[in-house]
Amino acid sequence: MIFTSLKDSLRLFRNKRRFPNRIIESASIDKTANINVNSVVKKGTSVFKDVMIGSNCLISNNVLVGPSVKIGDYSYVNSETKIFSGRIGKFCSISYGCQIGMSEHPTNYMSTSPYIYGENNIFNIPSYFDDIHSPPVIGNDVWIGVNAVILQGVKIGDGAIIAAGAVVNKDVPSYSIVGGIPANKIKDRYDEDTIETLLNLKWWDLPQEEILKLQNIFSKKEKWTLEFSSLKEINNRIGK
Questions:
Q1: How far apart are the first and last CA of the chain?
Q2: Cis ω for the linkage preceding 182 (within 30 of 0)
């Protein structure tokens, strides 16, 4: 027990030294993972190989970030969420206890048990099923509610909202709200013209100085659409 504690303390020290200008509280960060500046990784979180975490991200306590997962700038993942696979965009909000891109079992094989087809099968032969075969792709500025489940093979568009407890097994259009088991579309957040303008603007990809110029529009709260003409002018100015 003491030896394990010392090993964890040493790993944590190395991680802190390896990632300056970040707040690192986890000892479980793979040596191939990359965490960009001003990001926070809280205690109890496991970051696996080849993970890419953008700048200004918050990865809260007891989160699992699986191999090759990518998380964009200014996104946060709340406690107890497990991201087994996938690519997540910028400015995303992922709530507590979500499950994203989990391993799957074959449904059309003679058996669904990994002891038959997996790495440690009873036949002592190489695995013949890839349980992570189609990681989900989650766009930018997406909000995923508490305990939501996102299956493999799913694409979630920019600006979408996933209701708490939803099980998403098919693609979600940009700026739509979905919920239920399985998740179905509840409504669009805006009209087609507004959605098209936002998708053309892609404000999350703008340089920070350009995003800061949008403060007046963001701060209008639910009345931001009154500044709609300003967004179109910005689209024209930046050539989108």
A1: 58
A2: yes
Q: Write the CB contacts of 225 (distance below 8 Å, at least 6 apart in sequence).
A: 190, 194
Q: If DSSP codes are grouped into helix, strand and coil, which group holds residue 14?
A: helix
Largest CA distance in the chain: 66
**pLDDT digits over 130-187, tens only?**
999 999 999 999 999 999 999 999 999 999 999 999 999 999 999 999 999 999 999 9
Range with the poorest average pLDDT among 8-12, 45-49, 143-147, 188-192 = 8-12
Contact (Cβ atoms closer than 8 angstroms) between residue 25 and residue 43: yes
Nearest CA to 155 out of 175, 142, 172 is that of: 172
Whole-structure pTM value: 0.93
Residues in the chain: 240
Active site residues: 105
